[in-house]
Amino acid sequence: MTHIAYGIDDKYLPCLIVSMFTALKRLSGSAQVTVFTAGPEFDTSHIRVLARHFPNASVEIRRFDTSPLVEYEKSELAARFPAASMLPIFLPWLIEGKCLFLDADTLVLDDIASLFQTDLNGCLIGACLVYPAALTIQKVFHTDHDIMSILFRSRYRRRREEYEALADRMGLTIDEIASKFFCSGVILFDTCAIRSADPDRKLTKLEGASGGCKSGHMADMEILNLYFKDRVYFLDLKWDVPKDILGLNRIYTQPDVWNEIRAATRNPSILHFSDIYRRKSWKRPWYSSRRRYRIYRQTCKDIFAQTGIDVESMFDARV
DSSP characters for 153-180? Predict the structure, then answer.
């Protein structure tokens, strides 16, 4: 049985409906879905309505205790990333056995049962490299005096400073950030192994969990990278595709890395829509050239046709 976990507050409920629908629609075998809710109580009936259309899935809705995150909820980051986004830090002590955590703003295009069955080869988690960061680092640190660096000199300098600060916080070199920094939107947890390796729950006590993290990345990402450094199994990039890339990036990238990135972006298994409300993925015009947005809009229409849940109206009500 595939075990999937989500963490949401009311704002991200329509995102969850999209992600759950696409995950269960393509799943082979049975599934246990655990949805952790945070923030003020809200109506979760849509989750149960959706679940009734998938008899192979059992859905449980649980409250996520955010009391350890009181200080974080007072920080500036909390306005962009709610306390629910910090769930992965606590998940190993909330779920028994192997578990696949998905951000609510994902859209699944493949059977995640195969992902769930991945052998982690003794590692504690499985996750995907942040390939946009790897491309940016290659571009701004290892390319001298090309036309782009001349035209965007100030932007390149600012990005270098950001990644130098990140590397300093993480205790890694710039090249290690490019090759080891992983996404937190799709994580395969071996919770038993994590609890055995961390009986004192040090993961939940790292600086940053209470609001000390000031990075522009998602609040939990640096904490997870710091803790699981050298204990992560890197998944195929197709399982967490956060953005499309321009062909121009090819001139900055090693051929083997470029080929892997292009294969993932051309045939993604999971699309990740960061800042979904700011980018309004569900309201892009019909002629938008970006395929990922067309897929998202069509999925919203499919959900309404098959379940009667009007996801687009739910999105509009939360803008």
Answer: HHHHHHHHHHHHHHHHHHT--HHHHHHH
Helices 255-266 and 131-141: angle between axes, nearest 10 degrees? 140
Most confident of 13-17, 72-76, 245-249: 13-17
pLDDT the model gives residue 148: 59
The domains of the chain, with CATH numbers, are 2-128+182-246+269-318 (3.90.550.10)
CA-based nearest residue to 239, from 135, 130, 138? 130
C-alpha to C-alpha distances, 212 to 8, 17, 120, 169, nearest whole angstrom: 22, 32, 30, 12
**Predicted confidence band of residue 215 (pLDDT cuts 50, 70, 90):** very low
Question: How confident is the model at residue 289, as a pLDDT?
Answer: 63
